[in-house]
Amino acid sequence: MATEHIVGIDLGTTNSLVAYMQGDSPTVIPAEDGLNLVPSVVALDEKNQIIVGNAARKYLIETSDRAVYSVKRLMGRGVEDIQEELRLFPFRLADDLQTGEVLRIKIGDRTYTPPEISALILRQLKRNTERFFGAPVTKAVVTVPAYFNDAQRQATKDAGRIAGLDVLRLVNEPTAAALAYGLDKRKNGIVAVYDLGGGTFDVSILKLHDGIFEVIATNGDTHLGGDDIDNLLIAVALDDIRGDLGLDVRRNGEAVQQIRKAVIEAKIALSAQDSIKLDVELPGGMRYQREITREMFEGLIQPVIDRTVGPTKQALKDAGLKPAQIDEVVLVGGSTRIPKVRRLVQDLFGRIPHTDLNPDEVVALGAAVQANILGGGSEVTQDMLLLDVTPLSLGIEVAGGVTDKIILRNSTIPASATQHYTTQVDGQTNVAIHVLQGERELARDCRSLARFDLKGVPPMVAGMPRVEVKFLIDANGILHVSAREQRSGKEAEIDVQPSYGLTDEQVENMLLESFDYAEEDFRQRQVIEARREADTILAALAKGKRNAAWRELTGAERREAESLEQALISAKDGEDYSAIRKAIDDLNTGTMRLAELMMDTAVSTALKGKDIEHSDLEEGPVTGHPVAKAEFK
Amino acid sequence: MANTDSKSSVIVPNEATESCWSCGTMRAQHFCSACGKVQPAVPVDYFTFFGFPRKLDLDTAALEREFYALSRRLHPDVFAQAEPQERAWSLEQSSMLNDGYRTLKDPIKRTEYLLRLEGVELEEQSKQATEKARATGELKKQVVPPDLLEEVFELNMHLEELRAQKKLGEDDPALLEEIGKAKLSLEEKYDALFNELKSEWKKWDAAVDGGRGEELIKIRDRMVDVLNRRNYIRNLVRDVNEALE
């Protein structure tokens, strides 16, 4: 088997995609239903089986408490951060959730952490890919919003691990888009990427220089996107329904989901037409109908899209650039299809944005390019290199609850900083360090990343120990800490207490469970597919036996074919994939001459003037299959 | 390979005597000169890391070229398929590369960095230090440069007046004009100080080339003074802007 494919995954708030490098061009791998976009929806069916993607969407409406969407909004966050989300989204928290514990969300009567739910989506993408390649896939590049903090990145990486994927790199979404764009254009210059997706907004400014993609500045809002527009429209509808029809359906999950579906369709339609008629059937048979004009829509969403202005201006300022110095503006994310958003971007940069890339797919395509680079590169990606930055400053809490910034935002990663600590009391052996992320001056206004306890500092007079702590942000934007007491040269032990997020042990436990499942699932799918193939060939043989060609075989050939047929029939009832596979191949080889004879018959029949469409060829030749299956080794 | 600049021979990298972990040959900086394998980072200063002499009037275009060239060879993406040990070294080396580039490309950071290498402890005049002082109630060490005493005294009076007026909701255009003028004068001084710093760079670099150690100490102290005055003015302008908001 050729070297394993490394795929690029866009794990989106609303939709997720997987892509790979097919020769020189990144290509999206379709799901089983043939569609490129896999909705980031996870549901439990009647038998408590997990359903992901398009198939899960109907559960949102039929049994809304058994489905969950937009879980990306909860990644790496604590219960106190998500009050706004709980007000706007139908997330149901586990009843027994303890403070300080990682969030757990109810789906039906089960509970899952956000990384686990994301892992279920990733596992679906992994399966789609494995079906596509006919081979296992274990390595991926996964994209994250550029403005994701350490906890959100860590949670995404955990999700990958739980899904049985080795996440080789987390790539920032706008940067990935720039890669896909740059691969296409091969230009030098300054590019701005404006990425307004389902739940997150990023803006990045990059310098493209002979294949180097250097991010100069990035900014954004990890809780701003198309979801917010949907929620505004839902709120309007709920108000209308209460006012005009005297019906309060706010607590009716199914009705709200029905409305949500209708307003999303309306939103999309309003990008192409001037007005749309909402028509939703409500419980009790009443209908909610109203017309929305594009003008009304644009007025309604103005406050939402205006929230992208501040981060965009800040990114330009941090890059030290004026809008006129930007050579090209690239639009990413489904929400940039809204004409009003395009006009806003045009006003901000004073130029017409570039729209010839599909804004839903460009991030996954860029992730596939990065996957190719990490895999050793190919001719087109040979000289390409991504230099990304950390979106947020890293700080340490110092006396008085103040943040001492040690790595500033927009620093190229990997980046590091070294700090020295000492003790306050004689014989003190522990030093507590509080790591923060954010731009604010006071520690309480920044994001708490972790509290570290440096243990095993040799007991000395207060102020004597000199502990050197090294903070390193890796190419994924994730923090690593190491410490050493310099007088004794002793490595200090670090006890990590992540403020939000799973411990390694928790991830490990989730991983083993779902990994076992995945292996089991994979094996079962192999067997099922092999059986299907066996049925096809057995049916073709049965048909062949009724063909004149069968009688032209020698007796020995017929006996051989029939014994191989029996062997396949008994193998396909078993659970042994390789036995079924071998029996299929043997029968294929053993009936080669029959197939040839049938082909001759078909051709001579055609020559006699019969319609070839009605010949035995209709079923296809016995040997050879339309899609050659790859071997699992 | 970092030595594209002939002047870089001024500094002999101290790790040149060690041998490559992979093939045992004497290694060059960052990579083995024989087998090309990445080497563990050694604690050198950023000038040495880039193969530049410890001088201040740096060719930033050459620095950028070197940064891109080294990035192409040291970045973790290049080592995605390598052994864990090499991956760790690449991470270490490329973080040092990025930290160094960030420090050296910025003229002020570069000067401050070199002064620290020369053993100078720079005063903390940053906003952080101000906030820290406010939060802890400690007095921040802040010396008014003598030539600014009068101007600063007057400006502070005006700012006091402005704050008092703001509380009362009053508005005095004459006062605003005074403050505006003072701010403009400060900004001019701020720019002038940068030019002063740049002329000190040239003197420093010439003294390095001439090996004039005593002169270096004098230039060093003058640069510290320029930076302190510059920081002082920057903070003052920030205060003015806050009061005007």
Q: Runs of chain A with pLDDT <50, length 5+?
A: 609-633
Number of domains of chain A: 4
Overall outline of chain B: elongated
What are the low-pLDDT stretches of chain B, counting only 5+ consecutive residues below 50?
1-17
Biggest β-sheet description of chain A: 6 strands, mixed
Structural class of chain B: mainly alpha
The CATH superfamily of the largest domain in chain A is identified as ATPase, nucleotide binding domain
Average pLDDT of chain A works out at 85
Q: Estimate the strand proportion of chain B.
A: under 5%
* C-alpha termini separation of chain B: 52 Å
Helix tally of chain B equals 8
Strand portion of chain A, in percent?
A: 15-25%
Oligomer: heterodimer
Top-tier CATH class of the largest domain in chain A: Alpha Beta
Q: Quick check: average pLDDT of chain B? A: 79
Overview of the molecule:
The complex is a heterodimer of chains A (633) and B (245). Chain A folds into 4 domains: 6-224 and 307-387, Nucleotidyltransferase, domain 5, CATH 3.30.420; 226-306, Actin, Chain A, domain 4 (Alpha-Beta Complex), CATH 3.90.640.10; 394-501, Substrate Binding Domain Of DNAk, Chain A, domain 1, CATH 2.60.34; 506-619, Substrate Binding Domain Of Dnak, Chain:A, Domain 2. In chain A, the strands form 7 sheets. In chain A, strands 1, 2, 3, 4, 10 and 11 form a 6-stranded mixed β-sheet that branches. With 633 residues, chain A is of the alpha+beta class. Chain A contains 16 helices and 27 strands. Chain B is elongated and about 75 Å long. By secondary structure, chain B is mainly alpha-helical. Chain B folds into 2 domains: 6-105, DnaJ domain (Helix Hairpins); 127-244. Chains A and B meet through helix 11, strand 18, strand 20 and strand 21 of A and helix 2, helix 3 and helix 5 of B.
